[in-house]
């Protein structure tokens, strides 16, 4: 066979496999899991409006964290500290809102997230330490800070404006947590897909040297993505505190794995250069649905963890296969 | 015939004087002086490790010279990054091409210089149109402006890098072994593009290991050996034997 034909064919093949696999796996996965539960759990209340909207409400904080992580991972970095950031931000917000009111509480929560992001970002961008190690360390560090902030005590949030705004409130007939999710996804998507900033995030994750000789400041971009991730984890902390009407050091503790899984399943490459905010949203909803369905099926916590772990493994396998091609 | 009668009349677009660059204890470049005039093609030749890429990176602002001066159109400049060189109308095709593989051809064409519309959003339409126009002009055969760079062949990737440089350059293009990975047809294509830059009065500094190519394209040839400038010859007044002797430091018989 003439070599020109072969290479044309293999090129067409590779287009097809990329098109199907990486980009759309999350939508097929979402549909498949939805249909599976819809059939298996049709008598257990999975398909009720109440249950389905509950899934969306419960995944709001994870979705918001996932948006930040899409930016970080697209830039070729990672942020393992988001779970601890959620706890610190929620506690900071709870203490402050009780003491100084709504605005101060919000500023404290978001501010705590941004500060942790600034610390991570400065160490990665300017001290040039790998983000994996930096955020592994700050994950532990701020988990400790969260524990010591209130001596392991849970802090109730009594400000009803705060809990309405970030938790149980309804605006124009739509729960506030859905508003937050929708706004964060829309704004995140536009910044990621349609601005120079988003393009530069992808460029540094793809080829940092090429980005640098093209006039993109790689350190500034690294700092920025880690601050976005910290700030959004701070917002996720507010949403937890608002919905639960309390803050505790355990908030966000188990979210890291779910969020990373949502982002990877959603089509963001582990090594940067490519990703999707909408994919991360669907990935996050899929993980939420999985949790919900597995609970309704009566699986034990340990079985739930095993199933989730297997799904993450499958997702990572698809992602890496794509990258090494 | 490659000699350009106007070449010697114009003021140099680039002037290097006594450039020296050391990395720690290693002297990569010393006593280097060279001029490139508008519309002139100067070839930089020398064995592996002679310091050619280092020199390109000094001119493009990636490295700052340890000492010496760089003058662009008569104005002495101190460049500390690639953005400044680009602001002076200097574009580079690096040895590794500096392409973001997973991004599209048009995003690579505008990397770091993406146009935006009135809302501050990327003007993709414009990037795509300009890319398609340019690709057609230069006859770089790529499947589409939307293709990801990773899906292109070596020649097509090289074409994208060169198209990008010619699109943005107003004064000077630096090419670091632009045809090293290319087949016969692609090499001819690139050579044609380089020659066409003369019409736009753009100066070219090209690194090549192919003396055939150097003699075909260059007005002048500058020889480097172990960081030292051995000499500059007008192509018309030298031959391959002399250049080889200069590169290797051995007399040819
Ligand atoms: N960043 C650096 N740090 C230390 N030494 C360097 C650095 N960059 C280049 N050198 C050294 O400077 C010398 C010149 O290297 P350079 O890459 O400029 O050679 P070259 O002429 O482009 O070679 P080739 O034909 O193989 O591309 C080499 O000895 C190299 O090891
Ligand atoms: Mg070189």
How would you explain this protein's 3D organization?
- The complex is a heterodimer of chains A (325) and B (253).
- Chain A is mainly alpha-helical.
- Chain A has one domain (21-323): ABC transporter involved in vitamin B12 uptake, BtuC (Orthogonal Bundle).
- Chain A has helices at residues 3-40, 49-74, 82-100, 102-125, 131-149, 160-168, 176-194, 196-206, 208-213, 218-244, 255-265, 277-296, 301-324, and strands at 155-156, 170-171, 174-175, 246-247.
- A two-stranded antiparallel ribbon of chain A has the order 1-4. Chain A has a two-stranded antiparallel sheet with strand order 2-3.
- In chain A, helix 4 (102-125) runs antiparallel to helix 5, helix 4 packs antiparallel against helix 10 and helix 7 (176-194) packs across helix 8.
- Chain A starts with a helix and ends with a helix.
- Chain B has 253 residues and is of the alpha/beta class.
- Chain B has two domains: 1-89 and 172-178 and 198-253, Rossmann fold (3-Layer(aba) Sandwich); 95-168, no CATH class.
- Chain B is built from eight helices and ten strands.
- Chain B has helices at 52-59, 82-87, 105-109, 124-138, 154-168, 184-196, 211-217, 240-248; strands at residues 14-23, 26-36, 41-45, 67-72, 75-77, 90-93, 172-176, 203-207, 220-225, 228-234.
- In chain B, a hairpin with a 2-residue loop joins strand 4 and strand 5 (75-77).
- Chain B is globular.
- The complex binds adenosine-5'-triphosphate and magnesium ion (MG).
Number of domains of chain A: 1
CATH class of the largest domain in chain B: Alpha Beta
CATH hierarchy: architecture of chain A: Orthogonal Bundle
What would the average pLDDT of chain B be, to the nearest integer? 89
Give the names of the bound compounds: adenosine-5'-triphosphate, magnesium ion
Strand percent estimate of chain B: 15-25%
Enumerate how many helices of chain A there are, as a single number. Answer: 13
Largest sheet of chain A: 2 strands, antiparallel
Most extensive contact: A-B, 24 and 26 residues
* Class per helix and strand makeup of chain B: alpha/beta
Side by side, the strands of the main sheet of chain B go 6-7-8-3-9-10
Low-confidence parts of chain B lasting 5 or more residues at pLDDT below 50? 1-8
- What integer value in Å does the Rg of chain A equal? 20 Å
**Helix fraction bin of chain B:** 25-40%
Could you give the count of β-strands of chain B?
10
The helix tally of chain B amounts to 8
What Rg of chain B do the Cα atoms give? 18 Å
Keywords (chain B): ATP-binding, Nucleotide-binding, Sugar transport, Transport
GO molecular function (chain B): ATP binding; ATP hydrolysis activity
Domain ABC transporter (chain B): 14-251
InterPro entries (chain B): AAA+_ATPase (IPR003593), ABC_carbohydrate_import_ATPase (IPR050107), ABC_transporter-like_ATP-bd (IPR003439), P-loop_NTPase (IPR027417)
